[in-house]
Write a structure and sequence with these properties.
InterPro entries: CBM13-like, CBM6, Galactose-bd-like_sf, Glyco_hydro_43, Glyco_hydro_beta-prop_sf. The protein has 453 residues and is mainly β. The protein is built from two helices and 33 strands.
Length: 453
């Protein structure tokens, strides 16, 4: 993944197409090792030996309806190779192309030497509120669909699965019209639920995952706001059936940071004594272009907190992560042209940003240091609309690339989005933002240039 689209390679750089990547860049339109956009939304992860399998919703039809549960394979969590589809539609069943299959999660059942997939199974209008199960003898299957039903006769919508160290596993799900959240034990085969071990009444949670750390269970989930992001929360308990703590924010309380990084939890993968937060940034009008937002989830403070990282890497053997540092350039220090103006707010770095970009306005940031290779550059911007904006970015007067700028939740609320640029070696690069477009771009606070590409 993280490969430049072929078109951009042709027009803006002489990069080697689809070379192996080494860093995780949240929010980029990730590509697989064949150069296709990764279609694995609502992720589930499974580690088998030293190989990771990523299951998810293939939304390449930009529809909520079922196309496939994809299966990708990687040994480094960065370069992913698509395998055969793990689950495909079956006509005249609850997994036909007119139904919904979401949030696939796979676990290995030692008793039967079998892989078991659980997913949210629903009708096109989300009225059935069921779980579905499918099984296979290999990680990517293809899986054989068993059935869909309401666990213990109650509604189940967003769900996750937690497998405890002793192999007893649990369905985590939003029930009772998304009002109550339930944790229900699976049978020894992982084919059915047996007993409800805990109900959190009235918590309105979605998108759940559990990480166990030092004998404490940490439940991570979002609230319900449709496809729009809301701040993810965590809860803790010493027993799944015990009393869970009150909710807390998974990312720092900062109204200037878009919805705690503007994504919804999908899966939380343990990494050493920490974890990796794996979320979706849903793009509702073009669902297949929804982005993957993965960040380190650190327990350094004793509780799980998302670590903001534009560019970062994992050392799987050591169980550690490294957040890249870059060089920051303020947009207000650039040269404005056309209608571009200075916008002031304490939310902006240096107290200022450049507004009215696009539609005749642009800004050129000069004397940017480059290393002569492809480099990640993060644009820190605010977009107070309720829909995506986008902006052109060009280097040294070259061809422009278009970067999507999701709505951030307010005109003074910042988000960063990545773009890979090829800068010349030395501190002589000019980066122009917002030129040659008829639509307004987001207000640009600053850019951070990373040495990694
Ligand atoms: C695993 O641990 C849970 C929680 O203590 C317990 O309820 C369950 O019976 C255990 N399962 C096995 C297979 O020992
Ligand atoms: C799950 O178990 C319940 C209770 O025994 C049973 O009524 C239901 O049919 C089972 N569902 C499946 C899918 O096996
Ligand atoms: C950029 O945004 C404008 C206005 O919303 C839209 O018309 C255009 O299609 C977008 N371009 C891209 C490449 O997303």
């Amino acid at each position: 993944m993280f490969h430049l689209p072929a078109l951009i390679c042709l027009f803006s750089c002489a990069c080697a197409a689809f070379a192996a990547e080494s860093v995780i860049v949240p929010g980029y339109l990730w590509k697989d090792t064949s150069g296709n956009v990764i279609q694995a939304h609502g992720a589930g992860m499974l580690k088998v030996g030293s190989t990771y399998y990523w299951y998810g919703e293939d939304k390449s039809l930009d529809s909520t309806l079922f196309k496939a549960v994809s299966c990708y394979e990687s040994t480094d969590l960065v370069n992913w190779a698509r395998q055969n589809d793990a689950l495909s539609p079956v006509a005249n069943t609850m997994i036909s192309t007119s139904n919904v299959v979401e949030r696939p999660k796979v676990l290995y059942n030692k008793l039967n030497s079998e892989y078991v997939m659980w997913f949210h199974s629903d009708t096109g209008n989300y009225g059935a509120a069921m779980v579905g199960v499918a099984t296979a003898k290999t990680p990517c299957g293809p899986y054989t669909y068993k059935t869909s039903w309401q666990p213990l006769g109650a509604e189940s919508r967003d769900e996750g699965i937690f497998q405890d160290a002793n192999q007893t596993s649990y369905l985590l799900y939003a029930s009772d019209n998304n009002q109550n959240f339930k944790i229900t034990r699976l049978d020894a085969n992982y084919y059915n639920v047996t007993t409800n071990v805990q109900t959190l009444d009235g918590v309105t949670l979605e998108a759940p995952g559990i990480v166990k750390r030092n004998s404490v269970y940490w439940l991570i989930a979002s609230h319900t706001s449709g496809w729009a992001a809301n701040p993810n929360k965590y809860f803790s308990s010493t027993y799944l059936s015990g009393t869970w703590s009150a909710q807390n924010d998974l990312a720092p309380e900062n109204t200037n940071t878009a919805c705690r990084y503007f994504s919804q939890n999908a899966y939380d993968l343990p990494l050493g004594t920490n974890a990796i937060y794996m979320g979706d940034r849903w793009r509702v009008d073009v669902l297949g272009s929804s982005q993957y937002i993965w960040y380190p989830l650190s327990w350094a403070s004793g509780v799980p907190q998302i670590v903001h990282a534009d560019v970062w890497s994992v050392d799987l053997a050591a169980g550690t992560y490294t957040v890249a540092t870059g060089t920051s350039y303020e947009a207000e220090s650039g040269t404005r042209s056309g209608s571009a103006t200075i916008a002031s707010s304490s939310a902006f770095s240096g107290g200022e940003a450049v507004g009215y970009l696009g539609n005749g306005g642009s800004v050129t940031i000069k004397n940017v240091a480059g290393n002569g290779a492809g480099q990640w550059v993060s644009l820190y911007y605010a977009n107070g609309d309720s829909t995506f904006r986008n902006t052109t970015v060009s280097v040294n007067g070259g061809a422009a690339v278009v970067v999507q700028q999701p709505n951030t939740g307010g005109g003074n609320v910042l988000l960063s989005v990545p773009v890979k640029l090829t800068l010349v070696n030395g501190a002589t690069n000019s980066i122009t933002v917002g030129a040659g477009q008829t639509n307004y771009a987001g207000d640009l606070d600053r850019i951070i240039v990373y040495t990694q590409g």
